[in-house]
Structure formats: structure tokens, C-alpha cells
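Sorry, explain these C-alpha cells?

***
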Amino acid sequence: MKKENRIFRIILISIIALLTQGCLKEKYNNYLESISNDSLEIEGPILTDLKFPSDFDFKTETVVSVNITDNSPNTLYEVYAYSDELINSLDSITGPLPNKLFERLPFNGAIQESVTLSSFIDNLFIIRKSNEHIDDFVVPVLQNSASYTYNGPTGKKTVSKTSEEENQLSTDCANVYGQRFYVNLNNTIVSSNGNINTISNIQFPRQGVTGIITATSVDGVELKNRFSLAGAGFSTPIFTFSGFNFWISSKIDTNNDSDGYVEFEMVLDTPVQNLLMHFRSVDASMYQFVGDQHAETLLSGGSEFFYDDSGRILKDTDSRSRGRYYRDGYGSILISAVSGTFDRIVWRRVDDPTSNSQNDSNWFTFSEVEVCNDQDGDGVTDSVDEYPEDATRAYSITYPSSSTKASLIFEDLWPFLGDYDFNDTAIDYSIAKIFNSSNQIVAIDFNYVVTADGAGFVNSMAFEIEGLSPNNVASTSGQILDRNVFDLAGNGTELEQEHTVIPLFDDHSIIVNQENKVSLLLVNPISNTSLDFAPFNPFLVANGEREKEIHLANREPTTLGNSQPEVLGNIADINGNYTTENGLPWAINVIESFPLLQEKEAINKGYLYFEEWALSGGESRKDWYKDLPNYRNTAILKGN
């Protein structure tokens, strides 16, 4: 289209728009005038001229059914989206892992959940944690489904044990339930006296135990430096516990004496049944456990660590790959009492005669193991119970993941064309479904922050939750409502709605960059399959005109909404499906938080593959919003 024709068309639209009424008319005219002024600099088709597939819903996500079958006791599953961010984390020494979808014990031998993934993700990363093994699998997503069935031992070989030991391992919740309770090294005291080095005041908070470690050099081998602490840069991998923690650092020099060693002894002021020891970079000096009060079981270490049961020796088979990959540099070993309890752990670092390396650095730390405490009595052990003091709650599943937020962006001139910078009102948000121990939903939390106030209107936002009756909502808290846009029942739901409608706020402009949380509690628990999938049915109400709901493409209005309101002017949504005649929407939900556009900069100018993605109906460039080389024009993004 020639520039002159485009200018003429815009002027003609401006004349027609004079027939519109109120502040919508004023805002629309201001917008048309600004476009007319800018049009002389436009090259190529503008966004509103492009023809998008009529049935395209502009979704950046897909719902996947996850089916896991495992009848083993004391077994925990973690499920992640297998993304570039996850792979990079696995290849580094930092944590925790991103994009966790959920963490769950099988219920009656199975886990059946639906998760929402970025459309370009084709695999799930599943970690199985039991007392005997920690294993991981990459499971493909096939026809919107991912399935895994456990068929017996995997990973490290199972050590032959007596019946008493087997019973102990099945009840002490070893690796699975020790993952959250790590040692407190914040107040340790380091001292040395000749060839004896000590680190004391090592605290195990859950059991009220304090330990002291003494390192003694024997026969010419020396502890090269005093004990020290390595910081959060050595955060723990997935095979140990959650979060960040300090590590105890030590370095030995064998001085070419193959008979020497450094002996480490940890004495506890209160006996315990078991502990978890975590290690990193064993290098060319092997661990040899010699204490008579305890036995050891290697839980994780991937392909690199080997444990000789007869000699009680832990060996790094490739000492050169320090921290190279999360399985080959880290490991966890269960230390259990031979009989009853123990208060003393003894191990040696001895030279590996097959290696020429002499100076060997190493980091180790500990975490606690409980005996399956369940203080709220809901049948879910405390250390995997996200709500250990509330018998009505046990787990949660967060959309889009436990570590990320989605972006919901709006143009508020519907049903008229906008400038498609999608920054009139925008939020970054997550939705957490909270489950009881029977895997039924008991509550829903909306965590959000308003990220854009590019509107001339005062806008409101709400979510319709299809499948949830308003009468089954006991209460709602955290709503920010002062303008009487929504008429609410006492439980915080909007009156006269078929499905539950939860307003979040009714004036976006006063809460920009403010973290907010809206929580609703259910009267009766319901199955997850009863509800619509997150993000449910969000919508914007522009300038307080309640019936004018702005929804995602091809979604239905609520009971109180009107998808074809009677307004004067050049209406762009002629079908009432929240898309223009050319298929362009007024709202887009992006499964990741991403930078917004500056004023009057159309989304396809800032995100260079948006057009290709949308014109293909979502088949091409599914990752158009990612921060990848040549994907963005950062000069017109906010914050740049």
C-alpha cells in the first residue's frame, strides 16, 4: 500500500471516529492523530494490515498431561520443563533449577497432573528420588501427553543389606525427606594447632544437634590450608537439597606419600540415626570411611563417582571434570547407624595411586534426615509437605512454574483498533493451585504486579474460573477495589456470574510495580480436572464500563460481558471474538515475563519474529518472545 493511500485511509477513519462518544472518542481520536503524524515514516505493511489465520488464538503455551506410575514407598518426583535455561543450569554449578512444574509423592501409586508448557518445549525433565536411588529422565511430550512408569531399580547398583537395614532405609525418609534440612554453617569457628585443624559449631537445626570436625594429617600428608567456607557460588545441585548453602572447603597435599592420609572425624553432641553427606570435586584423593558406628550408601553421583562397598571407598573416576556437569562433580551419600544411632563419623582422604595429581581440593557439606515426621497428620511427611502445619494443605502447582511469571498484555481501545504496543495495562503474574493430601484443590492464589500504565483510561482486571461455582468459594482476600466497577458477594466473587469471577483490582494506575496477592479459599475441595486450565479466562474492563470486557483471542465473555456492544465508530471486532477482521487480538498472554514496548511502538517492531509466528498460526518461531540473538529490537523496549 502506498504511503499516500495509507495516510488518506487514516484520515478517513479519523473522520468516522468523530461520531464516537465520550472519553473513548477522545482517546481514539488522539491515537489516530498520532498514527497520522507517524505514518510518513512507515515502511512496509503495518501490523493491522497483516492477515492472520482466523482461528489462531495467539497462545504461547500448551497443556500437557503428565502420567507417572510408581508404587514404591517413600518416592518423590520433581517435574521440570526441559528448556535451555534448565540445560544451562544443569551444566553449571549454580542452583536451584528453573522451571519446576511440581514436586509430588505418588498418590495410590500414581501421579496424574496437567501442566502448562511453552509451546516450543518438547520434553519434560523428571527426577525420581527414593531412599536407594536418585535418577533422572528426559521424557518426550507426545500428543500433549508425557508418561513414565517405574519398573524397578535404576541408577546406582543396590547394595545387599540385611532385613534390619532394609527396614531402616524404608522408614527413615533418607534422601527424599532430607533434601530441605541442611546444616547451618553460619556461625562456625575454625582453628588450627600444628597438623590438627578444627571447624566447630556445625549446627543441625531440625534435631538440635551440634557437630565438630577435626582433620588430622598422618604420615607426611598435610591439610594444605585451614578449613574454610565456600559461598553460594557452590550452591547445591538437584541431587541434594533445595536452595543455597555454604560448603566446607579443604585441600590436601599427599607429598607423593601413597601411605599417608588426612583423617576427618565429626563428633556430634547428640546421637542421630542418619545424616546425608554431600560432596563436590573429590578429585584424585579418595574418601575412605573407617568409622565403626555407621554404614554408607551412595545415593547419587552419576557416572563419575564409584563406591567400593568392600573397602568403603568413594572414588572420583574422572578428577579432571570438576563441576563440569551436575552429575559428574557432585554426589550424595547416606550415612546410617549400624545399630540404633551414632555420634561419630570418621573418614579419610587417601591418595589415588593411579593419579599423578597431588594437590586436591574438595568441598563437602551435610543435611539432616528425619524419621518421617508428619506434624499436621495429613499423611504427607513434613519435609515434602509445603504446608507442614496445615492438615488441609500439602502441595501446590504454579502456573507457569515455581520460579517464573507470565505476562498478560492489553490494548484497551476495543472494539476499535489500537496502536498495538500492548502496554495500556499489563501484569506479570503467576497462579498457584493448592492441593490437600488427596490431590484435591482447596485454594488458589494469584500473585501479580502491574507492569504498565500506558492507558489514558482507568482499567480493571479480573479472572473467570470456569468449572468453579461461586458458591464454592468460602472467602477471597487481597483484592484492591475502590471504584465500584464490580458488584461483589460477601465471598469476594462477582454477583450474577455463572462461573466464579475474581476481580483483582479496579484501578491499575495506582498499583504499578507493586507486588500483590489475591487468595481464594474453597468451601469444598474439588478435582483439578474440574477447572479450566490456567491462566483461566482473564479479562480487562476498560474505564469502568463493566460490559466491555477485553478477552484473549477467541475466548467467550463472562455472563455480564457483551462481546458486541453498541458503539458508534469504525468497529474493528465485527465478529465479537476479540480479534480484528484480520485476526489481530487486543490481548496476549505470554507464558514468560518479557519487556514491554515503548509508547506507540507496535509489538512486531520490538519482537522481530512476532509476525512470522502469528502469520504461521503459531507453527513457526514459537519462541518469538525469548531473549535470543536477533530476536529483539531492544532500542524500543522499556528499560533499554
Notes: The first helix runs from residue 3 to 17. The helical segments are 3-17, 22-38, 84-90, 163-171, 174-178, 603-606, 610-615.
